[in-house]
Task: structure prediction
Amino acid sequence: MANPGSLVWLAEDRPLPNLACEGVDSYKYGLNDTFPAYALGDANDIGREGIVQRYLGRKVHYAFGLDDTGAGDTRCQAMTQGGSHLERGRNFVTMLNGMGSRSSASTIDYVPNVSHQADMMVQSIQGLEKVGSSLRILTSNC
Result:
């Protein structure tokens, strides 16, 4: 996951609450409701806690550009996560750490000299390392 504009927040609370903002915990920004059709089965079967536990058990590589300080998504739901892409990423990592069970296989990289640029994220040392690691896993399974 690299430089997301906003994130599906796993917890109900937000770092920058806004009581006037509706839908803060609705899907795309949270796990309360309005799930897309492909996710309704899981949402109904295992609920929020099951989704969170499944996610925390996954191997996820997070990468955030240290120069990605633009607001991007300026809807109030996104702004409750942080004022910029980088701040949202840092707040998300803080939330994960507060949940106490982020997968030990997951990684977090803060990439210097990169803003909201997908190509620069992939071409960074950290990006190439993660892509190479994933390719080795894929090709070893062939």
